[in-house]
């Protein structure tokens, strides 16, 4: 019989908050973390705004030793270590002794690009024939698994420690990978999450694709407009989210606080066939992913009362709503409450799923559904499918019972996880 899996720890490093309290308050109050970035103006970007965590010296001094900080400029690792260690501490878990790893605990922490700025520095030094000046941390800051390796150096986990990478699906996929590890009895606890680097070398490619909004440089907090008729593209973001997943038996044995239960989920791909492509989702695959997530979780379509969608503020938002309607067989007033957090934090790329899962889970604790900002002018194709009352503009008092969270990524990859009130 599969082990029941619960969430016992949360941590976040987001554009609008770098602690659970700050982040939770910002989400509840509809506060945006999207800001004008002078560097992007200097580099002549069309979109000169982004969501970037405001990491201070106090944050760095609290989470890193002076030795760890030496030459550390991989922003994804900084964000991931802050979120990951905060989640571990939030769960009330000890750090393994210097002599022996914690065999029952592991890490699945994803990334898209990692150490981009460090890699650029390395290229310049090598081209200038100064390879010896690279320093001892260049490898760990630029290797794909640098974030999970860095976190494990802090925590000392002896179970599976790995990094996954599936574009915007990465964070949600990491949670499901950790869930499977515990449900099958191969671990008692797993730190799951994802991070994304920030800066022009990460966001430049999207600006070149002209899929970012260019008319909101003077009003950044209005730029990200999920489900809106005036949506003009996603706003790039960055940061990290982290969750501690634990077997229910282990959590109860140590009297841990439980945020919610993970019922299950599904991961699939549209194969870039049909209407799917490198940048567009295959609707049939999205619907299958949702259907399988419901089936794997042992619930009915009608049990879902809340959805946190992917909903990036692009032309695909209406299609995503249509896919939810088809997969659940629900529409109009029968549709669950639905929200998107990208209006407040932007699209945090490989960190999107994990940061958004942290926010979604805080709704259980706050007995609230966070509002959708910047969609006063709902897209007409969405209103045709879903009653406007199901898309709250502001935070509403409503304790979710069963929440579905989806992520869809470049490469036509999908993930959906189901959380239940505990």
TrEMBL record:
Keyword field: Acyltransferase, Cytoplasm, Transferase
Primary location recorded for the protein, binned into one broad class: cytoplasm
Catalytic reaction annotation: (3Z)-decenoyl-[ACP] + malonyl-[ACP] + H(+) = 3-oxo-(5Z)-dodecenoyl-[ACP] + holo-[ACP] + CO2; a fatty acyl-[ACP] + malonyl-[ACP] + H(+) = a 3-oxoacyl-[ACP] + holo-[ACP] + CO2
GO MF annotations in UniProt: acyltransferase activity
Compartments where found: Cytoplasm
EC number: 2.3.1.41
Boundaries of every Ketosynthase family 3 (KS3) domain copy: 2-421
Gene3D superfamilies attached to this UniProt entry: 3.40.47.10
First-level EC class: transferase
Record-stated family: Belongs to the thiolase-like superfamily. Beta-ketoacyl-ACP synthases family.
Assembly: Homodimer.
Name assigned to this protein: 3-oxoacyl-[acyl-carrier-protein] synthase 1
The organism of origin for this protein: Pricia mediterranea
């Amino acid at each position: 019989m599969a082990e029941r899996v619960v969430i016992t720890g949360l941590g976040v490093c987001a554009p609008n908050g770098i602690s659970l309290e700050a982040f939770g308050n910002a989400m509840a109050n509809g506060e945006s973390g999207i800001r004008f970035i002078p560097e992007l103006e200097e580099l002549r970007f069309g979109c000169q705004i982004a969501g970037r965590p405001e990491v201070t010296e106090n944050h760095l001094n609290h989470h890193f030793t002076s030795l760890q900080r030496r030459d550390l400029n991989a922003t994804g690792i900084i964000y991931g270590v802050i979120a990951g260690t905060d989640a571990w501490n939030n769960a009330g878990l000890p750090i393994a002794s210097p002599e022996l790893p914690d065999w029952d605990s592991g890490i699945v922490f994803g990334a898209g690009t990692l150490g981009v700025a460090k890699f650029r520095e390395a290229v310049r030094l090598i081209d200038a024939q100064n390879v010896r000046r690279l320093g001892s941390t260049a490898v760990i800051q630029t290797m794909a698994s640098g974030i999970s390796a860095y976190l494990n150096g802090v925590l000392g986990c002896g179970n599976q420690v790995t990094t996954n990478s599936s574009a915007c699906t990465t964070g949600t996929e990491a949670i499901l990978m950790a869930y499977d590890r515990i449900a099958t009895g191969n671990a008692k606890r797993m730190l799951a999450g994802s991070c994304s680097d920030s800066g022009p070398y990460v966001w430049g490619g999207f600006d070149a694709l002209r899929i970012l909004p260019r008319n909101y440089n003077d009003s950044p907090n209005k730029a990200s407009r999920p489900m809106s008729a005036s949506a003009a593209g996603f706003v790039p973001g960055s940061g990290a989210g982290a969750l501690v997943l634990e077997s229910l038996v282990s959590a109860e044995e140590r009297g841990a606080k439980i945020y919610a239960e993970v019922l299950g989920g599904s991961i699939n791909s549209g194969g870039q066939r049909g209407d799917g492509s490198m940048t567009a989702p295959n609707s049939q695959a999205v619907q299958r992913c949702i259907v399988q997530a419901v089936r794997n979780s042992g619930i009915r379509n009608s049990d879902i009362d809340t959805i946190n969608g992917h909903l990036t503020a692009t032309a695909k938002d209406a299609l995503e709503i249509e896919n939810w309607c088809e997969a659940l067989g629900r529409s109009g007033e029968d549709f669950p409450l639905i929200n998107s957090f990208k209006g407040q934090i932007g699209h945090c790329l490989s960190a999107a799923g994990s940061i958004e899962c942290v926010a979604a889970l805080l709704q259980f604790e706050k007995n609230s559904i966070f509002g959708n900002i910047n969609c006063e002018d709902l897209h007409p194709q969405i209103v045709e499918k879903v009653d406007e009352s199901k898309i709250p503009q502001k935070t509403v008092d409503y304790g979710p019972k069963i929440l579905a969270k989806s992520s869809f990524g470049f490469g036509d990859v999908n993930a959906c996880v189901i959380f239940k009130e505990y």
